[in-house]
């Protein structure tokens, strides 16, 4: 059993590695080992907390303001959890359905506050979707009254980004306008790979529950231009599409990324990082992902703007034409292209081609796309893993399973392999001490995204076969994200009592504006992620589920990315009903000081 003192030592050991970056502050739980969802629990669903075993067998839930006991119960039998190396008991208070704010008590221990209500995820849902707005490049942002973020015009020099290489379409030094879009992560690179999958995640979230999205929902800050005829969420994705279109080349391929040649310092804001920007690489996998997102956009925007939807599908046809002519995977490598940006080096594009084909078939019904899927049936009907930027097979299978007029035999086969995987995820959740979908080998870089992706896949499975276990399993991943884990740490910035204090984020460090709604990577038990994480893992025995550092310099555990956040956006949008929230409701009530200054 990890004592409160020992937990503090583990985290502070990592904080000490910051060196000249400064000291991070540590927010402790009222008592260690009281693991709750710090945001809250939905009224009509399972409500469970985990308690590190202390020999007590009773628990109570008390009103957070008055201390009055409102619910009592018996803890489950103690059971060892291998990932955290804790012995846990479960406190099940599903029977408590009265909205309010509460604490869990066991003996003389008490938890962080948590809410119970019909719409407890409304605020973090808006903050998560709104985080994309606040990471826009190429537009003025003045978020007065909420985050305080003020950016004049991030990377205006992207209007004349220089091509880094020479091929049959471009010469080195050609200037291309690639303004706009979202910054990928804690750096200022913009990548077609994550742009494509993140845009798709958001559109699929909209498609699952269009009634959960409204105009005015995201409280766009001053300086943001948008189409008043669209729900805010679709305005946001459109901004990314406008950028990706600029990354498309004459033959339907795409540039892989745009960034500077060096990593900018943490003192550089989007509008003071004035280094020259370059267009690097071409990659057929990222091109196919762009094409898949276009296909989804073609059906989502159709009811709002038929002409725009048609233009998206026209571009998708161009992408498919390129892929049809380009039989082998392409990932161009030029010396120096990774000196100031990440690689996203996918050298096997078959899953991404399948995804695009399946989305195009779902949107258009054109049998040529189904014929492609049939021609690659051996790959298409493999057991999926959770989808990610370098393997989108599961998204391909979901798209085809949802398609009308599909070949009945193939569709049945595809549904089976997808639902078999969903059942496997549900089984992992049932066995894990914290109800987390992660197996040991999945506590890697972006483990929180890995867990949330599996939760999203359960929600997609529910659309194919409505099992309550799928919905509850997805909620378990939200509970994990919001602090029902062995670290009592919320992995979404600004959410809960103990969110990331020092995310690896240049916008925060350079401007002082802490952006809520960003999903950080979380525990990474594979040594070599970054120097601080590696040293931490080598400092002694660190349980797999605790291999996380809330420090600025741990990019392998404490950085966000747009595709990470997309997994949270999907899940939260599923459960959050739209409310007319005000600026004061989504504004944070505490400050998160920078480290680098």
Automatic annotation (TrEMBL):
User: What are the protein's GO molecular function terms?
Assistant: cellulase activity
Listed transmembrane segments: none
User: In this entry, which stretches build a coiled coil?
Assistant: none
Protein's GO biological process: polysaccharide catabolic process
> What residues does the Cellulase Ig-like domain cover?
34-110
InterPro entries the record matches: 6-hairpin_glycosidase_sf, 6hp_glycosidase-like_sf, Cellulase_Ig-like, Glyco_hydro_9, Ig-like_fold, Ig_E-set
Does Signal show up as a keyword for this record? yes
- Name recorded for this polypeptide: Endoglucanase
Taxonomic source organism = Selenomonas caprae
């Amino acid at each position: 059993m990890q004592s409160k003192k020992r937990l503090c030592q583990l985290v502070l050991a990592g904080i000490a590695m910051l060196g000249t970056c400064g000291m991070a502050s540590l927010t402790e739980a009222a008592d260690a080992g009281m693991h709750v969802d710090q945001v809250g629990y939905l009224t009509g669903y399972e409500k469970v907390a985990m308690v590190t075993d202390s020999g007590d067998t009773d628990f109570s839930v008390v009103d957070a303001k008055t201390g009055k006991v409102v619910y009592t119960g018996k803890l489950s039998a103690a059971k060892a959890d291998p990932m955290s190396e804790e012995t846990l008991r479960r406190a099940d208070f599903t029977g408590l359905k009265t909205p309010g704010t509460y604490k869990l008590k066991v003996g003389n221990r008490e938890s962080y506050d948590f809410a119970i209500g019909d719409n407890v995820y409304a605020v973090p849902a808006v903050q998560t979707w709104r985080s994309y707005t606040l990471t826009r490049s190429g537009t003025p942002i003045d978020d007065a009254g909420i985050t305080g973020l003020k950016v004049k015009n991030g990377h205006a020099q992207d209007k004349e980004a220089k091509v880094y290489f020479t091929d049959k379409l471009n010469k080195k030094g050609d200037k291309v306008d690639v303004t706009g879009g979202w910054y990928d992560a804690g750096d200022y690179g913009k990548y077609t790979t994550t742009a494509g999958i993140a845009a798709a995640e958001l559109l699929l979230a909209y498609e699952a529950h269009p009634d959960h999205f409204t105009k005015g929902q995201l409280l766009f800050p001053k300086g943001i231009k948008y189409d008043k005829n669209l729900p805010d969420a679709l305005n946001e994705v459109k901004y990314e599409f406008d950028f990706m279109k600029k990354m498309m080349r004459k033959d339907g391929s795409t540039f892989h990324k745009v960034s500077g040649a060096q990593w900018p310092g943490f003192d550089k804001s989007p509008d003071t990082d004035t280094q020259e920007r370059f267009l690097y690489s071409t990659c057929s996998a990222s091109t196919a992902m762009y094409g898949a997102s276009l296909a989804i956009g073609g059906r989502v925007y159709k009811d709002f703007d038929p002409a725009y939807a048609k233009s998206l599908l026209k571009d998708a046809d161009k992408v498919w034409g390129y892929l049809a002519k380009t039989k082998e995977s392409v990932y161009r490598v030029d010396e120096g292209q990774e000196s100031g940006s990440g690689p996203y080096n996918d050298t096997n594009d078959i899953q991404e081609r399948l995804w695009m084909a399946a989305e195009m078939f779902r949107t258009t019904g054109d049998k040529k796309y189904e014929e492609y899927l049939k021609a690659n049936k051996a790959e298409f009907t493999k057991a999926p893993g959770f989808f990610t930027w370098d393997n989108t097979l599961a998204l391909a299978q979901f798209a085809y399973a949802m398609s009308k007029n599909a070949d009945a035999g193939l569709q049945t086969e595809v549904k089976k392999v997808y639902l078999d995987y969903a059942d496997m995820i549900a089984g992992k959740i049932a066995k894990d001490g914290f109800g987390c979908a992660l197996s040991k080998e999945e506590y890697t870089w972006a483990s929180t995204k890995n867990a949330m992706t599996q939760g999203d896949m359960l929600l997609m499975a529910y659309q194919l076969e409505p099992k309550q276990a799928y919905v509850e399993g997805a909620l378990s991943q939200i509970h994990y994200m919001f602090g029902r884990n062995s670290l009592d740490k919320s992995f979404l910035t600004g959410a809960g009592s103990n969110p990331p204090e020092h995310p690896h984020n240049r916008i925060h460090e350079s401007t002082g504006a802490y952006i809520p709604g960003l999903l950080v990577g979380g525990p990474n038990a594979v040594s070599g992620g970054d120097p601080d994480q590696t040293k931490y893992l080598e400092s002694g025995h660190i349980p797999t589920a605790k291999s996380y550092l809330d420090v600025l310099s741990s990019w392998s555990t404490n950085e966000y990315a747009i595709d990470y956040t997309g997994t949270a956006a999907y899940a939260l949008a599923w459960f959050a009903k739209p409310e007319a929230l005000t600026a004061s409701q989504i504004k944070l009530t505490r400050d998160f000081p920078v480290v680098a200054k």
